[in-house]
Amino acid sequence: MNASILNEFRSIVGDRGLVSSLEERHTYECDGLTNFRVLPCAVLLPTSIEQVQSILRLCHREKIPFVARGAGTGLSGGALPVENGIVLSLARMNRILEVDIPNARVTVEPGVINLDVTSRVQPHEYFYAPDPSSQSVCSIGGNVAENAGGAHCLKYGFTTTHVIGLEVVLPDGSLVHLGGKTLDTPGYDLAGVFVGSEGTLGVATKIILRIVKRPECVRTLLAAFPSTNEAGAAVSGIIAAGMLPAAIEMMDHLAIQAAEAAVHANYPDCGGLLLVELDGPLAEVEALLAHVDEICRSNGAWEIRVAQSDAERALVWKGRKAAFAAMGRISPNYIVQDGVIPRTALPRVMSEIARLSKENALRVANVFHAGDGNLHPLVLYDRRIAGQEEAALALSMKILELCLAAGGSITGEHGVGEEKKCMMAKMFAEPDLATMQRVRCAFDPLQLSNPTKVFPTPRLCGEKPGEYISHALESAGLAERF
Amino acid sequence: MDAAAQSASPVLSAAFRDKLAALLGTDQIRPASPADAIFGVQPHLILEPATEQQLATALHFANEAGLAVIPRGGGTKVAWGNPPSRADLILSAARLNRIIEHAWADLTVTVEAGCTMQTLQQTLAQHGQRLALDPLWPEKATVGGILSTNDSGALRLRFGSLRDLIIGVTIALPDGKLATSGGKVVKNVAGYDLPKLVTGALGTLGIITRAVFRLHSVPRYARSYSISTVNAEEAQRLVLAIQDSQLAHAALQSHFSSDASPTSDILFEGTEAGLEAQAVHLRALCRSAQMSEAPPNAWNARQELWSFSDPASTAIAKVSILPTDIVRTIELFRRTAEPHRLRWKSLVYATGLGWLRVEGPAENLHRALSSLRAELEKMGGSFVLLYRPAELSSFDAWGSPGDSLPLMKAIKHQLDPAYTLNPGRFLGGI
Question: With contacts defined as CB-CB under 8 Å, which chain B residues touch A444?
Fold first, then answer.
């Protein structure tokens, strides 16, 4: 990046807000998906909305692409820098601006850590519901970009359910307010469009969240099954009985072994483990818990435990939430995927995954949000063995194809990012992608905001979809395209 | 291009009529009657395509011919929004009414836009399921119309609004393309969330042809109570106390009016034992306020606001405020209505969304509505007019657009550059 532009950036954020040395820039070359790396030209750490606006105005003037970044915990490469671009870290904009308990609203800056919102409202017996496994370190801004989920979104919904208003700096530096503190602000639901847009539509600088009252009681039941098939049948039984638990999680044998090795969650050693959490009024929960117990037993559960204290409950969840990281205990490397299937397709897709695993001689551990059909297959491999990484990547993409064939999605909560953009054309038809592209052009006509992510083949705004425009060399008969 | 700046509609050409005749059967094209006029703007034809592709193609023809299109489902809310600046064709979804797939074990349904809410609910009920939404006039209102107007009722407190229930959508665009986004699974973050974009867009970006929803179980047991309070202060205190409690109620609404003291209704759904325990808890929260079984029509209150006697002297608005502003808002209604000799009735949900009916001479209504909107917007709320007498048709339905209007116009320009769809009817002239 040329020195005069760098100086202009410096004049906006000051010396402390600019990272330009090579060693320090390396810190920002990837997010939680570490197999993609790009070195940013500079990293800027603004502390105010005005600074964000000035930075984006300069980017707009000079046509410099930018990537906004929260805590960098994303698992799809959404915060991966782009070539010749800057990274805009929102980590220093981390104030909780307003806590309004009677209206159940909290207004935050994007750098606020997810769990800090709950900690702040806990004394009033409220909580912020979306709970990605990284909630103790990930930021609300990043959650907004990815529409982060978590185990409890089965009952409580995703980030988008809990974001009712946003202040956004558009890629030309202008400031807009989407949604608001009251519901149904007149006009298009642009807050709904912005959440989950993976940083491609602008940068959120203020977020109005909805918080939820803590339920009177929470019970967590752990059931051990011979295999994931029986556990899956129990899940169907629970749903068919008309219940909506706060969470239904499943782990297979390999995942249980890893979690045990890592955090000693004291899980039963079984082929399929189900974790069902019910919350609500005490009498209601007790009645439903008895019913869940019965459904599990009739589907072959040979051991059922109910966590008796908050400490026991915390330990049960610790094992589940540490499951990805725990893979390090049983494999040098792993790839985590995020496919979604209709719940009913679970047994079929599981046996297909097992077949692929065997064929490719690669172990696959499975952790799911079983209630909503969100699979997290973990493909284990050893990078030191030639060809294994490529084979593991190929296998993980084949699993996503299985999900699509079952009528599902390539991502339930991690986002498309850099990693899965090649899969978008398999999930959506050309007019679908072209329509999304038009929406993108309304927000970002120059395509500066995280430009290379989400969509398979970036097009220029104003370009007609489907129409092929020949290159001047072709028209002149000097070149041919095959 | 602003809709208002456009010239008058061309008369339908013979060439255009020939194209339609080749696309649709004679029974799918009929002349519009005076009853089909919207705020006095008279369309020429009503088209009833039978497939999504037919609908998209008809829309494309209209777009190419520079004609304005009014999408219509059951027609129950076709007068919501501003008068159209032009209206040539009504594109009706009446024949697109199939329930394509009720995947009951996955708690999802895929349905065409012209299916009525009642038909949908009856089908879902065969498996003990429902779309957890209570829109107006379910026997006539269609999925597409309910989505386009973002209509929701009391159940929203527990289950969210359409934005939280819709998981996939297909829309027909003016260029004749059918575009799908979202999917058929409840959890999905691939691509932009366009189901939310078209929910509440009043058909100005594309015509919804099908939608996919997540479903909930029909509760085994439900019980409703009504609680009488002496004034708005007590009603607000009760609502906030219930909201701050650990009760797991599905709905909570309060009635206010110029001639009665407030009452609130609360709905519980769940197991028999659970409901019993919650009733005990509620009784403790009510303190001195009197609690009784709710009347059977309690949850029909929103629709009953539309049972008014004189269409020429009635206005109905949707109001959005913070729950802590209930007293201020009710006081505002009273203060504004009294000097203008207006009668009023209001229903406010615990979410802060409410409905207001005002009755009185049209010229007084005009002044009262302007002042109500100004005051509510100052409080950070909004005031959207849903029904007004013909005399007040030029009174803007939406209110101040805020700083995102240029962005909204940019999206409109991307998806419907010729302002073919419902021109001039949405916020800020869109």
Answer: none
